[in-house]
Design brief:
The relative contact order is 0.24. The protein is an alpha+beta fold. About 10% of the residues have low confidence. It is built from three helices and eight strands, in the order H-H-E-E-E-H-E-E-E-E-E. The strands form two sheets. Strands 1, 2, 5 and 8 form a four-stranded mixed beta sheet that branches. Strands 4-3-6-7 form a four-stranded antiparallel beta sheet, with no helix packed on it.
Length: about 170
């Protein structure tokens, strides 16, 4: 009986210890390369006009009214960041070796009351458009009180040429 208690104690202890061990912090494999970002630092002649919105299961449209729309270059570094950024948003994980210089190339604007936005003087290239569009709804479980968040992060990869006026619907 004593051996059984000791074995049980060791199993419970092992489960407790492994449950408390921190998971490794993810690392980027691509290095920040200033040359990849240099073309995006210039003033361009292109523009992006769009609207951010989601349609609910019930058919109601939720606009990105007052939400921030982000535009950032698509480079090997930011393409890898996209994977981790989504992971970070959903799992609240931090990334160990992020080079903060990439943030200098992010353009952002606040959408109007209908989710409309416009970026002007953009240089030609490939970009990511992103908007976190969330709202609260009553909790869906029986007997639960309060609200829970719903929505999603809207992302679209785009390519634009000099002088182009690109129209985008940023939705799922």
């Amino acid at each position: 009986m004593r051996m059984l208690k000791n074995l049980l104690f060791m199993v419970v202890s092992a489960l407790f210890i492994t449950g408390c061990v921190a998971k490794p912090i993810p690392k980027l494999t691509n290095q920040f390369n200033e040359q990849d970002f240099a073309p995006y630092a210039k003033k361009g002649t292109a523009s992006i006009i769009g609207q951010a919105f989601l349609k609910t299961r019930g058919g109601e449209v939720r606009y990105g009214a007052g939400d921030t729309i982000f535009l950032f270059p698509s480079t090997p570094y930011t393409r890898e960041m996209q994977h981790f950024t989504h992971h970070e948003i959903t799992n609240r994980v931090t990334i160990e070796n992020v080079d903060k210089r990439w943030r200098d190339y992010i353009k952002k604007i606040t959408a109007d009351g209908s989710g409309n936005f416009e970026f002007s003087d953009i240089p030609a290239g490939e970009y990511f458009l992103e908007c976190a569009l969330f709202w609260e709804v009553p909790k869906s479980c029986y007997g639960c009180a309060g609200l829970e968040e719903t929505g999603e992060v809207l992302r679209k990869q785009i390519k634009i040429t000099e002088g182009e006026k690109l129209k985008i619907m940023l939705t799922d």
